[in-house]
């Protein structure tokens, strides 16, 4: 299977702190790859690098034949590599429908995703008035309007109630089934276990384990990273 995104030897420092240190990662069409690691291990920085919000110091990020390294976030998104944020970003004054139309002015498509995400009842409500979990869905809808080949999900499960989390799980699974490659960054081990076919664990900027979720979660380096009492 041809990778949709390949990260090779990615490195990023902030002053003396090496936030991402020689990281490799491959995202495949239709596959959900999990990314875990303690706070500050470099997960968001890696997503920032892949989405063009930060520049690599060394290494490469490829989408097919195209190198994403020096591209602006909008160009990367236009190629179909899109992301959500740990802290949800919606236009609070705009309605749900208008939020989706900002990404791409196609009402039929927007209506389709509003339906898919079960946001029909709030389609004309200001996004700022919705619950945090619903705002996350609006953000996901916006991302889907961009016709993504890859979605980088930065903590989609954080801060939402268990019922909505079940819905989010099913949306992520069905997006992968449609062929989209997904990177799922989350601290929720159950979510990771249920959804991911591959899991990568980071600690202090480095990949410390990768492989099947069960093997990675059981690995000594992951146990050490989370329970080692260093933080
Ligand atoms: N813009 C920045 N300037 C300086 N340091 C940064 C910047 N962004 C991240 N860092 C540092 O890089 C390291 C990795 O941070 P990052 O946010 O990528 O970790 P994370 O694994 O996503 O953590 P969390 O689970 O808390 O989101 C941290 O030490 C952080 O303080």
UniProtKB/TrEMBL annotation:
Q: Does the keyword Transport apply?
A: yes
Record's Gene Ontology CC terms? plasma membrane
Span of domain ABC transporter: 5-229
Q: Supply one GO molecular-function term.
A: ATP binding
List the PROSITE patterns: ABC_TRANSPORTER_1 (PS00211), ABC_TRANSPORTER_2 (PS50893)
In terms of Gene3D superfamilies, this protein maps to: P-loop containing nucleotide triphosphate hydrolases
Q: Which key words tag this protein in UniProt?
A: ATP-binding, Nucleotide-binding, Transport
By its UniProt entry, which SUPFAM superfamilies does this protein fall under? P-loop containing nucleoside triphosphate hydrolases
Q: What is the protein's given name? A: ABC transporter ATP-binding protein
Species this protein is from: Alicyclobacillus mengziensis
């Amino acid at each position: 299977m041809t990778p949709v995104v390949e990260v090779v030897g990615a490195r990023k420092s902030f002053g003396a702190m090496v936030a991402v240190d020689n990281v490799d990662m491959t995202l495949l069409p239709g596959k959900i790859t999990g990314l875990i690691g303690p706070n500050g291990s470099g997960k968001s920085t890696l997503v920032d690098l892949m989405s063009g919000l930060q520049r690599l110091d060394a290494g490469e990020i490829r989408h097919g034949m195209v190198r994403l390294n020096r591209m602006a976030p909008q160009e990367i998104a236009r190629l179909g590599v899109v992301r959500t944020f740990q802290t949800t970003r919606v236009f609070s004054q705009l309605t749900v429908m208008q939020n989706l139309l900002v990404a791409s002015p196609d009402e039929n498509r927007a209506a389709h995703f509003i339906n898919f995400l079960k946001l029909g009842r709030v389609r004309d409500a200001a996004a700022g008035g919705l619950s945090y979990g619903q705002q996350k869905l609006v953000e996901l809808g916006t991302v889907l309007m961009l016709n993504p080949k890859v979605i980088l999900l930065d903590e989609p499960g954080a801060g939402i109630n268990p019922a909505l989390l079940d819905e989010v799980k099913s949306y992520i699974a069905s997006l992968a089934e449609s062929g989209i490659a997904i990177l799922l960054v989350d601290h929720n081990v159950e979510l990771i276990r249920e959804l991911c076919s591959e899991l990568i664990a980071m600690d202090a900027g480095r990949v410390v384990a990768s492989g099947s979720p069960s093997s990675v979660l059981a690995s000594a380096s992951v146990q050490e990273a989370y329970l080692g009492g260093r933080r």
